[in-house]
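Fig. S4 source data, part A: sequence.
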Amino acid sequence: MSSQMFLVALSFAYFAKALSGSYMKSTITQLERRFDIPSYLIGVIDGSFEIGNLLVIAFVSYFGAKLHRPKIIAVGCVLMSIGTFIIALPHFIIGRYEFETSARRIVNSTLNVSPCAVGSSADLTQGGCEGESNLSMWIYVLLGNVLRGIGETPVQPLGISYIDDFTTEENAALYVGCVQTISVVGPVFGYLLGSLCAKIYVDIGFVKMETITITPADARWVGAWWLGYLIAGVITLLSAIPFWFLPRSLPMSGPRGPEKCTPEQKSFMKHKYPADEHASFTEMAKDFFPTLRTLLGHPVYLTYLCVTIIQLNSLIGMVTYKPKYIEQHFRQSASKANFLMGVINIPAVALGMFSGGLLMKRLKLNIMGAARFAFGTSLIGYVLSLFFFAMSCENAKVAGVTLSYNSTDGLFTACNSDCFCSASDWDPVCGENGITYVSPCLAGCTDSAGSGKNTVFSNCSCVGVAGNFTASTGQCPHKDDCDRMFPYFLALSVITSFIISLGGTPGYMLLIRCIKPQLKSLALGFHTLATRTLAGIPAPIYFGAIIDSTCLKWGQKRCGGIGACRIYNTTSYRIAYLGLTLSLRTISFIICIPGFILLSRQLKKEEENAINKALANGGTELEALRKEEFIISNSDQMSDNSTDRETRL
C-alpha cells in the first residue's frame, strides 16, 4: 500500500514538473517577442534548466540514495515552485508592452494618422528609450529556470530507484511505465495552459483592448505568458506536500528474508535506521570517484549513453521549436499551435510509452529483446519522418521581402518614394491585391480611417488594384496551400510520435538492467547528467541559431538593435529544422551497430559465467557425494573384515 502511495506522490511530482517544463516550451515565441530577443537566446534560457541540473545531479543521485529520499524530493519540489514564480516576476516589474508600429513614431499626430511621413528624418522620433534597460529582464527568466533545474534534480533518480528498491521485479517495469506516462500527460495540460494564455493579451486589464491593432495571429502579439507560470508554480508547490509524510524505506512485499532481497536492498536495509548506523559524508565521497570509474568502464552503458545523447539532441531540438514551426511554416497562431501539441501530439506519446511498458511485461522481453524493440520502433519512426520534407508551404507574399515591387528589389520603389519611410519598421498591412506590405508607409498609403484592428488605409499607390488602393491591418492570410497540407502533417506527426514512444520504456529498462544493482542509482543519475549537459543545454541553442539564419525580416528594438524575427524563409526553415533533426538520428543509428555487438558479448559472457558457476557448484556437490560413497564403502569393508575375523576365530 505504501509503495502505491509513493507511486501516486511521485506521479503527481512528475506531472507538476512536466507541466511547468512544457509550459516553458509553449511560451518560447511569447518570450522572444516580449523581451525582443532572437531564437538562440531563447535556447540559452531553455537550456538554463539543464544547467541547474548539472550543478547538483551527480551528488544528489549518489548521496541522496543513502539519505531520506522522499524528503529530498519534497525540498526539490519547493525549489521548483520558487523558480517558476521567479520566471513570472519580470511582468510585474517591467512596463507595459509596446509593440512595433509605424504610426506611433510620427510626432504631432492627429486622431487619424497619415501613414505617409513627408519630410526628413527630423520628423520621426525613436519613441523614447526610457524602458530599454527593462528588456534585460529576461535574466530573471533564466535564473528562475536554473532554480527549477536544481529543484527537479532529485525527482527522477531518487524516485525511480526508490520504486525499484521496494517493489517486486515484475511490478517495477509497470510502475516505471506508469510514472513515465504521467510525465507525458503533464505536457498535455502544459500546452493547453499555454494555448489559453496565448489568447489573452499580455497586459489584460491594464489596456483598452479596442485600442490594440494586432490579433493573436500577428507576429508582434504577446499573450499573458506570466499567468501560466503562476498557476504552474502553485501546482508544483502542492506536489511537495505528500513527500514530507512518506517513510525513508518501505516494507518489501512478500517474505523479507535476506534471500528474497536484491544486493541493493540488503545494503539499503543497513541504512534504514539512521540512529543505529551512519556512514559519514567523507566515507561516501571517498567511494564516489572509484564507483564512477567502474560505471564509465562499462562498454554497454557507455554506448547506450552515446546513442541516447545524440537521439535526445534531435528530440529536444525538435520538440522545443515544434510549436514555432507550426506557427511559422503553417501560419497558425501560437494559441492554436500549443493547443494541437497538447491535444493531438502529446497523448500519442503518452499512449506509446504506456503501451511500450505493457508490451515489455506481456512479451517478457529480456535485455536484448528490449534493445531490439527500442531500435526497431526508432527506425520505423525515422523512415516515416522523411515524409515531413514533402509537406511544404509557400512563402508568404511580402512586397520587398519575398516578392519584388514591380521587378524592383528592396523595400523602396517609385510608388513609395514620396513618403519618408523607415526600412526597420514591421507594421504589416494587407493590400486589396492580396500582397502584404511591411508597413502602410511602404505600401504608399497616405490616409487612414477607423481605429484599432478596424483601421483601413487608403490611397495606397503601391497596391495598385484598378480603382481600389486600400489596405487593412495585419498580414494577408494566404493559407490555402497550407490548410490542405496541415491535416496530413498532424496525422503523420501523431503516428511517428506514437511509434517512437513505444521504445521509450523498454529503452529505459535496458539502462537499469544492463548495470549492477549497486550502481543503479548512480547510473540513472549520471545518464540524466550527461544527456542534459550534452543534449538539453546545447540542442535548443544551436537549433535556435540555425532557425535564426533563415530569418528574412528582423524586428527592431526601440533604441536600435535587432529584436525578434518577424518573418522566416519557409523553405529554408523546413530544410534546416527537419534536416538537422534527421541527421542526428542517422548518426545515432550508426553507433547502435557496435552497441548490439557489445551487448551480445556481455550477455554471452554472463551466460558462460552462470554455466561455469553452476558446473562449479555441481562439481562440489559431486565431490561431496563421492566422499560420502567412499566413507560408506570403507565402513562396509571394515565391517566385512571384522566379520571375517570373527568367523576365523
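Fig. S4 source data, part B ends here. The beta strands are 429-431, 436-437, 447-449, 456-458, 471-473, 551-556, 562-568.
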